[in-house]
Hints:
By secondary structure, this protein is mainly beta.
Amino acid sequence: MMQKNRLKKIVCCQISQKYQNSLLTLHVFITFILNLYIYMSKILKPLACLALTLPLLPLTSCIDDNYDLDDINTDIEVKVNDLVVPIQLDAIKLSNVFDLDEGSVIKEINGEYAVVVDGDFKGEPTHVSPVTITPSPINPIRCDIFKYEGSDIDLPIGAQAISYEINEATTSFTFASSEIDRTIQSLNSIKGTWDIDVMLDLDDNNGLFQYLGFRKLVVTIPAGFMVENYPCENGNVTIGDIDMNIGGPTYIKLHVSQIDFSKFDSSTFKFTPATGDVNNGEIEFHGKIGVASGFVVGSTNSTSTNIPQNVQLQIDPILNSIDVASVSGTIAFSLSGFSVADVDLSNIPDMLRRPGTDISLCNPQLYASFNNPMAYYNLEASSGLTLEAIKNGNVVNTCSLDAGQTIMLSYNKGLQGPYNFCMAPTRPEEFYGHYTGAQFVGYKTLSNLLSGDGLPEKIHVEFVNPHVLPGEVRDFTLDSEIAAVEGNYTLYAPLALSKGSKIVYEEDEIGWNDDETFDKITVTTLKITAKVYNSLPAAITLSGTLLDSEGKPCVDAQTGKPAVLNGFTVAANTTSDVELSVSGTISGLDGIIYSASCDVTEVDSTLRPDSPIELTDIRVTVSGYYRDTL
């Protein structure tokens, strides 16, 4: 009787154990299905960030260690045929996908997603070097002057008086410099503080005269020399009547404030600006200086003195170097030293950074605002612009302004401006932010800035040949510094993707088999069906491959091929019935690698945070078996 009861107890316990293992099998399969559901959610990670968990079913055991089961076959196998688990999801929106933080370069602007990056830039001040023009040695003049017989000259009082007529007597001079600042492209005139000393001396070695003086004295200089302290017309400086020093030279000082080179001709003035590798310009001008006309008068104390009929006059002009304070003419120079930090794109959602992603933007806009320190002189500036997309240290895209398009900086808004520009493939209906009244500049290639296999890591900004355009200036100050051109920029690129753009996302999900339970599962059929409404302007394609504990694809024991779930595609703005499935003999499950791609099929489609994707009627169906040993 005891033997019978004991056997009965063992059999009941085994039946109970098999029942519990059946429950365990059901639990394991449901857990597996829910992991697949998590895959469904995560495969839509470019479209949602969802997760599900399922509490483990509490299981108890009635195995009594006092029983000896060595003689009983404890291997069990429980089959599951077409186990179906229905699942319901809320609508998924793009705002669930991007999960933007404050530092992200993707912002929500007016209900749309856009790449927004702000920065600033600054060039170097332009230093205009001083200019000094030096004279070559000049020969003094020695000329004989003869007694004047006319009566229109007032003679001095004395025992005897005489006058001598001075006819024109000049000497040549040359000024030159090879250190003209390269900013100066042509010269009309120069200004500065410059004195010319004209020494006049009469040869009176015998001391005959008690008085000597000049009457109606006119000094001649080039017509372009502007003298401040004497009347000057067309190069004739009227000195008038002055006394001479007895026994020594007499000096006449001319204060020249300006030289007008328009009064010179090509034989007397030459200017060569700096070009190419030539660092400085050159100037050279020639002229004559001396006495144009006048008289020397003298008197003696004695009537017996023998007054000569002619005497020798020495004229010795002393020319000093010219320190040029300002110039009038044409000015042009390069703007150098622009420092623009690279645009960092590292803080972009992962879904936009994967290999295979290729984005072409419909109408990205690059805004820039400048000052113009040259506006004081009514000078304009111009620059090209190139953006280089950098990935893995290499330039993958280069975008330059349209042919014939430049950033043209005017002067009508004064020194501070601001001078605003909008560079884009097409002119937007409204300008972004504070860039009101911006000047439009064509920039078609900007649409391709982010295109290629995966997004770039950063954007390098390069102003191309920034320079001040040749312009006429008056009294442009030398030995001075022109403030730097500076400003700020905004890259504003709405995520309005051009047709043909592609976003690719791939990620693996492993670690399902933490307690080795899934080692005991063999899947023969797995099928996921759902009704999907896709409001995005892009077709969505989803697929996946089952992975083993080593992260390698699970292999179908029947075919030896990887266990790949066939993918499905949902067209833009449509509702479709979809199915992912795989069949075979698949074991050793530990996770899945999934991929999703969005292929933009509509023209100029903008990604919006509220664009939903709805999945309804979701069914996960699985067949297989659970094999274990009691």
